[in-house]
Design brief:
Elements lengths: L7 E4 L2 E4 L10 H5 L2 E3 L2 E6 L4 E5 L1 H14 L8 H14 L6 E9 L15 E9 L10 E9 L16 H13 L4 E5 L5 E3 L4 E6 L2 E4 L10 H14 L3 E3 L4 H6 L2 E6 L3 E8 L2 E2 L7 H14 L10 E3 L4
Parallel strand pairs: 8-9, 8-15, 12-13
Antiparallel strand pairs: 1-2, 1-7, 3-6, 4-5, 4-6, 5-17, 6-7, 9-10, 11-12, 11-14, 14-15, 15-16
Bound molecules: pyridoxal-5'-phosphate.
Length: 312
């Protein structure tokens, strides 16, 4: 990772220099990828001179739900964590878009074979970095349908945002890159579309937006829920949550990835089948604009989705 100087991380109640944010190599976090996390965004609004955190309560709710399923006991409650990331972003003095990740991890001596609920060493940390929004770049990506299958709720539940799950996505992503694509879409164990390695998927057919249900082997994406609402309320587009066949991707009018990191990322081809006319679709472009206005605090209807960092 690129070395960052003069920035802070938050770890177990303290703001510490970036280089000092460490966990031991023998921790369960390192040995077994026992770490749950959120990937969150804060967007800078120049005219407001403000940095807005997007949907903080939704991310906190999902993080503590991941902890519950994983039987992890976070040492700090959601309100403490929220105060910590607001202060972290303030201390790092971002006046630009930023990405940050609150994490809960298992520490030393926590191999699961010695599991007892009362001796678990559980820690928390937050890292952050500048990350510019890619919305409105006017371009998109080319993806394949992966030969790897998305993990299922019966073995490694995708609903949990745990680091270990990302090995499944990594296999698919790296294979896609080796094969000359930008990224991959994974099918679930039933052969229906699940999601990308780090994003959910929407397609547009005959003016209707279609996305798989939360039982399709996907993360319960906060962006997905946001876009379902914005498509309906801001663009008057009907949204259907249903199973999606692989071949529907080949004949869709528009396809896009969505997620905190991916925002709304147009997909221009799938398995080298051109999507629509091979350019960013009209509806996708409109949705990118609506989303950009909302996350940056330029649409007052959704002001309560934003947590201002400065002067909070
Ligand atoms: C596997 C996976 N699916 C979907 C998403 C999108 O979720 P969200 O919109 O909550 O960021 C992410 C990103 O965090 C992800 O890692």
């Amino acid at each position: 990772m690129k070395k960052r100087t003069m920035t802070y991380a938050w770890m177990n109640g303290e703001f510490i220099p970036w280089d000092e944010a460490k966990v031991h190599v023998s921790s369960s976090c390192v040995m077994l990828a026992s770490r749950i996390f959120e990937g969150m965004r804060a967007y800078w609004n120049d005219s407001h001179e403000q940095l807005y955190i997007f949907k903080s309560p939704d991310h906190l709710r999902r993080l503590y739900q991941s902890a519950k399923i994983m039987r992890m006991s976070p040492p700090y409650v959601a309100s403490q964590l929220e105060s910590a990331y607001v202060e972290l972003l303030t201390r790092n003095s971002y006046r630009e878009d930023a990405h940050f990740m609150p994490s809960i991890y298992l520490g030393i001596g926590q191999h699961f074979m010695s599991y007892t609920p009362d001796t678990i060493d559980t820690g928390m940390y937050i890292t952050s970095a500048p990350r510019k929004s890619q919305l409105g770049s006017g371009t998109g990506i080319n993806v394949c349908v992966s030969s790897w299958t998305r993990i299922s709720d019966r073995d490694m539940p995708p609903r949990i945002k745990v680091a270990a799950n990302y090995q499944n996505g990594r296999l698919a992503h790296v294979q896609a890159r080796e094969d000359g694509y930008d990224d991959a879409i994974l099918l679930n164990e039933r052969g229906k579309m699940a999601e990308g390695p780090s994003a959910c998927v929407f397609l547009i057919r005959h003016g209707t937006a279609i996305t798989p249900p939360v039982t399709a082997g996907i993360l319960e994406s906060i962006t997905r829920a946001t876009l379902i609402q914005l498509l309906q309320d801001e663009l008057s587009v009907r949204v259907i949550e249903r199973e999606v066949d692989r071949t529907e991707l080949y004949i869709a009018d528009e396809v896009f990835f969505c997620g905190s990191a991916f925002e709304v990322t147009p997909i221009l081809s799938v398995d080298r089948y051109v999507v629509g006319n091979g350019k960013v679709g009209d509806l996708t472009a409109k949705l990118q604009h609506v989303y950009d206005q909302v996350i940056r605090g330029n649409n007052p209807t959704y002001a309560d989705w934003l947590l201002p960092v400065y002067g909070a």
